[in-house]
Amino acid sequence: MCGIAGIVDLNNNVRSIYKKNSLKKLVEHQYNRGPDATNTWSCDKEKYFIGFNWLSVQDKNKKANQPFFD
After folding, report:
1. pLDDT, tens digit, for every residue of 29-55?
2. Does 33 map to a domain?
3. Most buried one in 6, 13, 15, 38, CB count within 10 A?
4. In what order do the strands lie in the sheet with 48-54?
5. Per the domain annotation, does 68 fall within a domain?
6. How many structural domains are present in the chain?
7. Phi, psi at residue 18, to the nearest 5°?
8. Looking at the domain assignment, is residue 29 inside a domain?
9. What CA–CA distances, in Å, run from 10 to 7, 19, 49, 56?
10. Virtual CA dihedral for 15, 7, 24, 20, nearest 10 degrees?
11. Residue 66 in domain
């Protein structure tokens, strides 16, 4: 199983360093859901923060790591 966590702050009320630290704790807490790869992402305006834990069941290729960018 993979794990996904996110934080949304549309009004930008909280400093981004606190949001990043909170997201890091969330992702670390769900580490057992996907120990093969861990990553975080935030948008340019730092309103959206997403963290991933990935469990590679079949695809061991690093190109399959999340988050995907397009």
Report:
1. 887 777 788 888 888 788 899 998 887
2. yes
3. 38
4. 3-8, 48-54, 37-42
5. no
6. 1
7. -70, -40
8. yes
9. 10, 12, 11, 33
10. -20
11. no
